[in-house]
Amino acid sequence: MFDYKLLAALAAVVEQAGFERAAQVLGLSQSAVSQRIKLLEARIGQPVLVRATPPAPTEIGRRLLNHVQQVRLLERDVQAQVPALDEGGVPERLRIALNADSLATWWATAVGEFCARNRLLLELLVEDQDVGLKRMRAGDVAACVCATDRPVAGARSQALGAMRYRALASPAFIARHFPRGVTPAALARVPGIVFGPDDLLQHRYLAELGVEGGFVHHLCPSSEGFVRLTLGGLGWGLMPEQQVLNELARGELVELIAERPVDVPLYWHHWRNGGELLERLTGHLRKAAGECLVPPGQAVG
């Protein structure tokens, strides 16, 4: 039998990114948390954590974290069916990884009613759409929104639709850098804006225009900040069409190459044995996302 106090200590250390904050969440001393991790490792005969900053799970640690995530969801189902088992504490938050652009545009509209109706709390971990699945593989989250369709072992993947991006810049930026008009070669020589080191959307856009290799760019790990920098004339970048409809209508942002959108497919990944709540959220999200995103059959680029 598992000792879930030991597994809870492991989950807290990884989720809180350290022993000190894990101890605060669990209401224990830091020494007590450390002892529980050591006892867990002694029982299974191998390390469950890499003692780094922040601590990271080993392969066996990831398997245990995945198990903990699923048990939490199943426990919530049982508490809903047998209210006497509910101890009245703060409910567990459902940990979900998703990309910043989804959070800044369609996500709240898609899940707001469901969360209110089911008294569901969320803990959202923001990752680039190309790397969010790493969080599931590491056992950090119970579900994620990402651009990869292939699920990790023990999980399912559902197509949600696509986010449509357009390459935009301010009129002042275009006048300053492209007096003779925008060309792919010229675009690669002026400052761009990239969300972070894992964001390759602008690179792929240039490659589709026939421009290979790197290009000069700012790094801005904020979806809202990305728009503000572009409006301020610091660079050009690919932005979700949903996010900048008003700026486009007012002429504050202009598409660099007309009718050259890029559609990024998004997939919902969730644990196969995640319980009734996660299944119902999945069904709700598939329907709601269909009203917010570009349907898969209409995606381009």
TrEMBL record:
- Protein family per UniProt: Belongs to the LysR transcriptional regulatory family.
Which SUPFAM superfamilies would you find in this protein's record? Periplasmic binding protein-like II, Winged helix' DNA-binding domain
* Biological function: Controls the transcription of genes involved in arginine and lysine metabolism.
GO MF terms listed in the record are: DNA binding; DNA-binding transcription factor activity
The identity of this protein, by name, is HTH-type transcriptional regulator ArgP
| Any one Pfam family match given in the protein's UniProt record, by short name | HTH_1
List the InterPro entries hit by this protein, alphabetically: ArgP, ArgP_gammaproteobact, LTTR, LysR_HTH_N, LysR_subst-bd, WH-like_DNA-bd_sf, WH_DNA-bd_sf
Where would I find the HTH lysR-type domain in this sequence?
2-58
How it assembles, according to the record, is:
Homodimer.
Q: Which organism is it from?
A: Pseudomonas borbori
What keywords were assigned to this record? Answer: DNA-binding, Transcription, Transcription regulation
